[in-house]
């Protein structure tokens, strides 16, 4: 039977098991939306901006492990996806993004709402392709899903011209994929793995460094199995957090720029760094020459290009993190040395030098995160980017099925709220909390409407310090306290550049409580730590709409400890006092 | 690992699709790799293109380039030709005009010495066609630039390379 391209598109999504489609219509996608009309096989979610759309699909994919699916129109619809595609690419999130395109005979004519989205996305996605012939449509969609979710997952862009959408053709959707140019690596090199296992069990000061790859491959259980066979302390990157329960006796915490003392000490002093699923970026390593200086390094990663790029390693293993860890657990010989002293040394540093935040009785970000820790065993927490993100990664405890969703690689402000919406849509039975800042939340605040329309409860925590706090912190620490364009209260009439917030500052805009109310939502402003719990109670009582809680925090709180860029991990700044205080 | 930068050769099999050349070229520019030349053309199988790429880089960068090429969805195979016995040739055209009779004679003589063709001429102009290695063509070009720079144009194609069948070393 001959069917239209749009009908094959709908059929393809069904065969791929898609249950949620994040979609925003427009002129070059209208035919696809017509084919979706009345469709009950999937929930078609209409966000309020395409950037919110792609972050929501991203949050959905990270929360569920399934592929997030986006559908937008050509031109601005497509270009609004760009930041979200790059975000997903950096954090290895499987997405398939369908973009409408002008008819093939108009491509290249500067037609209305025409852009070369494949060209724009080429360097920020795993694969991008334009469907040029109706007979290729089924194969291309099949390949798109296959490429997105296999190997190192990532976003795929499928550009779908209007004439192909309407052309009649075969109704067959292929069952198999065969691509000579794309063969994701499977299996583990057992010789290399045995060598690595031997090193792990004979090290005197072994350390496991767990990156985002372990979370992407859902390798947490395999990691636990390894830890049952070998006693070795564990540190995580921001993206690896949660791969091991944070209350596990061998877990030390996050390492890197804002990592804890125990974790960074462990990296500096270990004699074997057994790393899985990390690309050793600059936020992790600090000064490269000093990084794990006395250690042999094992590196397991699915991406051969990540191995020995930043850090030269002794044993490289190209493999899926989960598979490699599972096989490792099977073959690990008994440990040769007693490492108790090493473990105890680190756990006592963890006890003696925890990350603290003392507000002297006033409300701190830690108080908010602690409340999340007390309240939930299983929870999905999304963050925005900046101080709110770093505080969350420092203080959040992850147990049970809990998961942290954050834009680690690209560091995309505006990610948190839409990602939370996507996560909630994917995991309706899990409580979802977004920890955002007053800067980042405004980058996609319009998505509150999406959550209202989808009738989903989630708790949006806005940590409001009236600053773009992370940059302000850098300005305070490294730029002589010159707060250049980071104050969100500054008005033209403030006059001169200002670096000292005070009681006379103009009022904050918007009023987040009133803003929430304008969406028909509860908006709660919390200024005292004793009111935190009650605010969460109120948020939880709402079962079909989000709740906005604005926490007024100290304007100049810093994220500490910190390893200033370019310093060795052992050179941690734990205290910083502003001059003249 | 050798930290010194030297010339490398890659032969690349890619899908013969729209945008693949842009993808590969973009990879080099986006990651600041030092591309010297890139040629591309269809192979015996019209669905496959083959690229010959020459570049400058140290061992570490070159390893990374090969990995990055390998992980590209459109790339079928990456062959490192750097230390293999290969045949590689580049075409160079040099057009020289406003020549006097004695200059014309000199060009015909020197072309014979260098073993390059005169593929076209009229009474005052010639087109030289040199099919040689890149560095030999460098020498040819240098010679003619010395005498005819203001009256010439040069077009180079970049190298194509193929693995040899009889040579065991270069």
Structure report:
- The complex is a heterodimer of chains A (581) and B (170).
- With 581 residues, chain A is an alpha/beta fold.
- Chain A folds into three domains: 2-170, Rossmann fold (3-Layer(aba) Sandwich); 190-352, TPP-binding domain (Rossmann fold); 365-552, Thiamin diphosphate (ThDP)-binding fold, Pyr/PP domains (Rossmann fold, 3-Layer(aba) Sandwich).
- In chain A, the strands form four sheets. A six-stranded parallel sheet of chain A has the order 3-2-4-5-7-6, with helices on both faces. In chain A, strands 11-10-9-12-13-14 form a six-stranded parallel sheet, sandwiched between helices.
- In chain A, strand 17 (432-437), helix 19 (448-453) and strand 18 (459-464) form a beta-alpha-beta unit.
- Chain A is globular.
- The termini of chain A are far apart.
- The mean pLDDT of chain A is 96.
- Chain B is built from four helices and eight strands; from the N terminus they run βαββαββαββαβ.
- In chain B, 31% of the residues lie in helices and 41% in strands.
- The two termini of chain B are 22 Å apart.
- With 170 residues, chain B is an alpha+beta fold.
- In chain B, the strands form two sheets. Chain B has a four-stranded antiparallel sheet with strand order 2-3-1-4, covered by helices on one side. A four-stranded antiparallel sheet of chain B has the order 6-7-5-8, with helices on one face.
- The model of chain B has no long low-confidence stretch (mean pLDDT 94).
- Chain A binds chain B through residues 118-119, 122-123, 126-130, 132, 147, 152, 179-182, 303-305, 308-309, 312, and chain B through 1, 14-15, 18-19, 22-23, 26-27, 30, 60, 63-64, 67-68, 70-71, 73-76.
């Amino acid at each position: 039977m001959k069917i239209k391209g749009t009908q094959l598109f709908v059929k393809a999504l069904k065969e791929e098991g898609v249950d949620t489609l994040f979609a925003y219509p427009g002129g070059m996608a209208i035919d696809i939306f017509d084919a979706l009309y009345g469709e009950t096989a999937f929930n078609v979610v209409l966000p309020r901006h395409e950037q919110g759309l792609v972050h929501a699909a991203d949050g959905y994919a990270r929360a569920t492990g399934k592929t997030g699916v986006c559908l937008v129109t050509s031109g601005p619809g497509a270009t609004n996806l760009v930041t979200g595609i790059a975000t997903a690419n950096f954090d290895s999130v499987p997405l398939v993004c369908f973009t409408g395109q002008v008819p093939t005979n108009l491509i290249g004519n500067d037609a209305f709402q025409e852009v070369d989205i494949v060209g724009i996305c080429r360097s920020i996605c795993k694969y991008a392709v334009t469907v040029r012939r109706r007979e290729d449509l089924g194969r291309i969609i099949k390949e798109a899903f296959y490429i997105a979710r296999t190997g190192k997952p990532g976003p795929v862009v499928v550009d779908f011209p209007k004439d192909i959408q309407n052309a009649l053709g075969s109704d067959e959707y292929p069952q198999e994929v065969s691509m000579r140019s794309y063969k994701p690596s499977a299996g583990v090199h057992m010789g290399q793995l045995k060598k690595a296992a031997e090193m792990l069990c004979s090290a005197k000061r072994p350390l496991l460094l767990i990156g985002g790859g372990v979370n992407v491959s859902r390798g947490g259980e395999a990691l636990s199995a390894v830890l049952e066979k070998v006693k070795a302390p564990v540190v995580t990157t921001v993206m690896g957090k949660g791969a091991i329960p944070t209350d596990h006796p061998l877990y030390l915490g996050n390492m890197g720029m804002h990592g804890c003392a125990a974790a960074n000490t462990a990296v500096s002093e270990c004699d074997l760094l057994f790393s899985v699923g990390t690309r050793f970026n600059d936020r992790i390593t600090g000064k490269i020459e000093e990084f794990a200086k006395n250690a042999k390094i094992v590196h397991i990663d699915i991406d051969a290009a990540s191995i020995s790029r930043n850090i030269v390693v002794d044993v490289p293993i190209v493999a899926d993190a989960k598979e490699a860890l599972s096989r490792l657990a099977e073959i690990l010989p008994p440990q040769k040395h007693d490492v108790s002293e090493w473990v105890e040394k680190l756990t006592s540093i963890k006890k003696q030098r925890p990350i603290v935040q003392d507000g002297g009785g006033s409300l701190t970000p830690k108080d908010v995160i602690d409340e999340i820790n007390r309240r939930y065993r299983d929870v999905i927490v999304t963050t925005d980017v900046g101080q709110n993100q770093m505080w969350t990664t420092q203080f959040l405890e992850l147990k049970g099925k809990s998961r942290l969703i954050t834009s680690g690689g690209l560091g995309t402000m505006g990610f948190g709220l839409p990602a939370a919406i996507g996560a909630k849509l994917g995991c309706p039975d899990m409580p979802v909390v977004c920890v955002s800042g007053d800067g980042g939340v405004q980058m996609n605040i319009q998505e509150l409407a999406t959550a209202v329309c989808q009738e989903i409860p989630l708790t949006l925590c806005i940590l409001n310090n009236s600053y773009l706090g992370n940059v302000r912190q850098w300005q305070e620490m490294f730029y002589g306290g010159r707060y250049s364009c980071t104050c969100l209260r500054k008005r033209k009439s403030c006059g001169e550049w200002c670096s000292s917030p005070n009681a006379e500052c103009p009022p904050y805009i918007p009023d987040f409580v009133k803003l929430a109310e304008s969406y028909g939502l509860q908006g709660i402003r919390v200024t005292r730590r004793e009111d935190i719990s009650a605010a969460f109670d109120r948020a939880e009582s709402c079962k079909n709409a989000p709740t906005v809680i604005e926490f007024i925090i100290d304007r100049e709180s810093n994220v500490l400890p910190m390893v200033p860029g370019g310093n060795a991990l052992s050179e941690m700044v734990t205290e910083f006092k502003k001059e003249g205080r | 690992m050798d930290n010194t930068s030297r010339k490398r050769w890659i032969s690349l099999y890619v899908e013969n699709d729209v945008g693949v050349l842009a993808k590969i070229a973009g990879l080099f520019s986006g990651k600041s790799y030092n591309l010297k030349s890139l040629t591309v053309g269809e192979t015996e199988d019209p669905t496959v293109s083959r690229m010959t790429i020459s570049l400058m880089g140290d061992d570490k960068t070159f390893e990374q380039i090969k990995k990055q090429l390998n992980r590209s969805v459109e790339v079928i195979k990456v062959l490192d030709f750097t230390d293999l016995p290969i045949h590689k040739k580049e075409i160079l055209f040099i057009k020289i005009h406003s020549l006097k009779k004695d200059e014309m004679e000199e060009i015909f003589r020197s072309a014979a010495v260098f073993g390059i063709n005169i593929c076209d001429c009229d009474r005052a102009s010639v087109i030289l066609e040199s099919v040689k290695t890149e560095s030999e063509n460098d020498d040819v070009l240098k010679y003619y630039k010395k005498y005819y720079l203001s009256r010439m144009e040069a077009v180079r194609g970049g190298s194509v390379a193929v693995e040899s069948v009889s040579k065991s070393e270069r």
